[in-house]
Amino acid sequence: MAIIERPSTTPAVAGSAPSFVGPADAYGAFRRPVTSRGWRSWVFTVDHKKLGIMYGVVAFCFFLVGGLEALLIRTQLAAPDNTVLSAGTYNQMFTMHATTMIFLFVMPMVSGFANYMVPLQIGARDVAFPRLNAFGFWCFLVGGIFLNTSWFLGGAADGGWFMYQPNASHLFSPSHGVDYWALGVQITGIASLTGAINLIVTIINMRAPGMTMWKMPIFTWMVLVVQFLLVFSLPVITVALFLLTFSRVFGGQFFNVQAGADPLLWQHLFWIFGHPEVYILILPSFGIVSEVLPVFSRKPLFGYKFVAFSGAAIGFVGFGVWAHHMFASGLGPLSVAVFSVGTMMIAIPTGVKIINWTLTMWGGKLRFTTAMLFAIGLVIEFTIGGLSGVTHAVSPSDTQQTDTYYIVAHFHYVLFGGAIFGLFAGFYYWWPKIFGKLLNERIGKWNFWLMVIGMNLTFGPMHMIGLQGQPRRMVVWPQNLTGDGLFNLGFWNKVATVGSYILGLGVLTFVWNVTRTHLLRKGEVAPLDPWDARTLEWMTSNPPKEHNFDAIPTVHEVDEFFHRKYEEVETDHGVRLVKTRSAEEILADQEAHADAHIHMPSPSYWPVVLAVGLVIVAYGVIYSVLLAVVGALITLGASFAWALEPSTADPSDFDPPAGTPGKELANV
Amino acid sequence: MTRNIPSPEVAPVHDSPRRVTRRRVGLAATATGLLVALAGCARNAPQDTFQPAGENARSIDNLQRPVFYIAGVIGILVFAAVGYIVWRFKDRGQELPIQGHGKPILEIGPIVLSAALLLGIGVPTVATVFKLAKTSDTQCVVIVTGQQWWWEYTYPVQPGCAAGGIKQPIVTSGQLVVPAKTHVLAEIQSNDVIHSYWIPKLNGKRDAVPGRTHTLRLEADQPGIYSGQCTEFCGLSHARMRMQVAALDQAHFDTWVTNQTAPYQKPTDPAAITGEATFQANCSRCHQVDGMADSAGKPIISQPELYVVSGSAPNLSHLMSRNTFAGAVWDLLTPACRDKVWHAKPEEFSELYLQGVSRECLNEKDLRDWIRDAPAKKPMYSSDAQIASNNGLSRGMPNLKLKDDQISQIIDYLVTRK
Amino acid sequence: MSDIAAHPEVIHAVDGHDDGHAGSHGTSTGLSNNKLAMWLFLGSECLLFGGLISTYMLYRGRNGTGPGPDALWDIPLTSISSFVLLMSSLTMVLAVSHAHQGNDRKTQIWLSVTALLGATFVGAQVYEFTSFYHEGLGYTTSLFSSSFYTLTGFHGVHVSVGIIMLMALVAMIGKDKIPGNKAESVELIGLYWHFVDVVWIVIFTLVYLIPA
Description:
The structure holds three protein chains of three kinds.
Chain A: E1 4-5, H1 23-27, H2 40-43, H3 48-76, H4 87-121, H5 130-149, H6 177-205, H7 218-250, H8 264-297, H9 304-318, H10 333-361, H11 370-393, H12 395-401, H13 405-435, E2 437-438, H14 441-467, H15 489-519, E3 524-525, H16 560-565, E4 566-571, E5 574-579, H17 583-592, H18 606-623, H19 625-644, E6 665-666
Antiparallel strand pairs in A: 1-6, 2-3, 4-5
Helix pairs in contact in A: 3-4, 3-5, 3-15, 4-5, 4-6, 4-8, 4-13, 5-6, 5-18, 6-7, 6-18, 7-8, 7-9, 8-9, 8-10, 8-11, 8-13, 9-10, 10-11, 11-13, 11-14, 13-14, 14-15, 18-19
Chain B: H1 17-39, H2 55-88, H3 105-133, E1 140-147, E2 150-155, E3 170-173, E4 175-179, E5 184-190, E6 195-197, E7 206-208, E8 214-218, E9 224-229, E10 242-248, H4 250-260, H5 270-282, E11 324-325, E12 330-331, H6 335-342, H7 346-354, H8 364-372, H9 374-377, H10 384-388, H11 404-414
Parallel strand pairs in B: 1-5, 4-10
Antiparallel strand pairs in B: 1-2, 2-3, 5-8, 6-7, 9-10, 11-12
Helix pairs in contact in B: 1-2, 2-3, 5-11, 8-11
Chain C: H1 2-5, H2 33-59, H3 69-72, H4 75-101, H5 104-134, H6 143-174, H7 182-209
């Protein structure tokens, strides 16, 4: 399927091109991995679409792991003084549940969507740095596996995902769990940072002709905002994680209270990252629903610029409100007051989004596909989460609610009802684009309703549980604090557990839908433009060709594709919208005017080798210096090989060697 | 394939009435859920955040109730709007809408409105923040120290609190005894990791951060018992780190102070005398009993700093004046006796509380289990191997491997510590 | 991380008619992809050093029973090594200028001089660390020592990585093995080098010159 084109051996544009360096001289014995079939075509790929799919598949596997952890937590909490999990295991379970869902599911899943869709949405052929992109994926994968191997090597981290010091110091958490956590999150952080730089450059520099910033699809806009958040928030957690690792491994004093350390240092560093992180998780899903709602309402996004701008505003203000996670930490009344008011301000741009989505649907022609249902679900569930957020922006009120189940309810409405519903809308919406097959809509409806019912039954009661005074992170809750009457805390805890199983069933329904579509081959082949979509990614085949577009389109409108299909015509009954061209005609037109020379970057060994080197260093830091040295040498060697490697393979790397220049397709 | 509207099998556009109904049921359920959350279904939950029993919690309650109501109304408006739109504009084969990005003016209204609303919330919020941070009107100071996994209370020498003030420091744990209708200021500290002190009916929570002192105002309107829980994750037994505040009327509080500062009473009962010796041999190295002397008449000073990471262990001088033990998790009173005290009318509570734990009312089973093998009852970091790997220091009480008769002797002694 | 972001990548995919040379040609903004990426990376690095500097500033006075800054600093020595590092920025500018003129020989020379000056700085830092250690300032001695070594150590590692990149660049220019635009590669590493210098000026001022 994938086509790798041989490069022309002579630069077509002479003069302006720099001296051509023969790749074979550059790195001697190694031939480039150029195959487009079999496992090698995936492991060494630098294609943004393959990487996007790999991000998605791996992230979804971690979603199932994190979900299993959640179900175990809920099973433990179904009854008072339950003994399904021991206290130690329970603490590891909620730490890893959060870590997995945040760092190994939502963030990489967003990376997957962004990788796949952003170049297509802006009319580019790949991202700016394809090898860096591959490196990011492999860092995420090895980092995620590294984190989870801790379960089998002495126990996972048990300090909560926020790892407050000194509770997560060596004295109070002596297993290697926290070491694994700090190093694992560090490695996935490298993935996010390289990915962020790559996507920003791609979006800023590689837009199709005519696509100004104010003509970009809104998903691309939100991805751009999020990548800026990552670039400026990740280094702060990097510092925190280094301090943590150096304290635990080399005896650094940073969190040693006896030596005079201030435990609030960690909290500030963590939340300066941790709060933008919340928007890093949610904004891409806002982008997805801002694509899905217009398509299925058959109207442009209401207040497109407002939505883009409010996203940027949320991101910007999001940097200034980290201390609202610390209202009970003893910051002093002035700081608390300032951060409280700052936090309230975020409600304004967030409200703008809700209003825009609602008005997008107003006057539309709504089709309730599964993607649309998830998008509407997000609007509703996120509204609940947003409103409960306002209640604890009121800091005195927050001192009653923080660290109770009310907060758990709040952020699950935001992150499950918001971020994850958005991702599911994205699955159903973009599935035909990515895989060329439609997911079954009837199963999709089951999927949606089970999830929406399950999520409200799971997290809805948690509002009550929390307001009635049940704190978070407790392995057991006692019977004698549950209150009187049938509908007491014990009852709501049971409801939440039942709800979580329904939610699990909903997720399994999705797994079944995918299995049925692909493994059982019952999936319907997707038409070219199944949803009557509006943006550029639909202006190519399903799945797209290796080089995305035969001809790079020139953009004139925000919803370019839609405007190529439809025209407004005057009739007796006023202005009417008439479809003048089909997607097939537009595609045929593109193919007829295909670009002559399309050179795609060649695959490379070095991203995966470099990532593996890093994870060996991480094991070395925990277990042995020798191992760390070996890892460092691999890392260094791979960096050099990478630096020396030209972006496209030499003709001699192909088998049989290519001699003919020009647009010859090599199906190897 | 050049269809204007995708056919149903490609992208189902049909939306049967049944589905719409389900949608509406879903919306109604969510809205009801929110209302239910506001109203609160469980009655008399001891840690209900909407049932203030003191001035400070009440000022929070006065602030948060309107916010909840406004949020609820906005929520219902959004659900209603979305519900209406879903019903009104579903695809019934109508004309395609004209493509336009809308009138931005429509946005200005809601933005201004929400900004005004937030201002309306913001001003009282800031006022309440400063009100709750005030310390100048303090009438009674208690130092509250958290450690894995229990709370210690120290009443420093001061002119306030009791009639005639507190003349020698009082150290107790688990249950904080305060005079009702008094501005008590808790000075919150920690000996190891971060904990958080939270008595929902009296005030919001405040973290106990090692190396820092944070203040928290506590005031109860009425005598009674107010339940709380450590709310900052603090390790293995975070779930088993609780506390109660027992508010007494002023006269009974004065009696309590007198009792706590009374000189050591040597046991008189023979079983308890044996128990005193057993206690000295096995417990005294960590647990202080004020005024207790060894056979040579030398006062015994416990040295928990040699055995425990946090450097402290509960002072047991007046254990039986408290109702709970081991991080205020288990009852010292039998359920019947406990209910009599804890559910007493405010005017009777102080009297009943001061009776403490009698032999008849002692919940001996839990206490016995605890002394026999504490880490089995409450997960702690105190096995032999764990202590050995940690320079001989444990976190929490180890299994002392006492025999049953030793345990009985210790209980016989402890029951005399009122 | 830095060595990754510093290296040029292909942007063939930008434009179907562009036959494969890196640089600013054909990007939406006219900025080169590589430079934009380097600027973003350096922006991110600012916050990394910001975090480390904040940690140091919080803990600078907390030296417990161990030696404190006043007992340790050798301002003349550190001033000289700081001056050496500053001079290396000048030589880096010369290297970039020659690279743009296509003078490989002079580019190589000035890059080597830059690396040498950088190595002198790192050498002085190693000497300084060793003497501090002998004066009783171990990594675990106090909050001050941990945060001092971490901050300056991180900076030292950045300089060292820069030296490795400079040496690699010299070798690659010698063998004519730079994929993509040579002058731009020199310029990118120059950007990184200047950044590391500027960070040192901040560190030198805050750590050594302003009394605790």
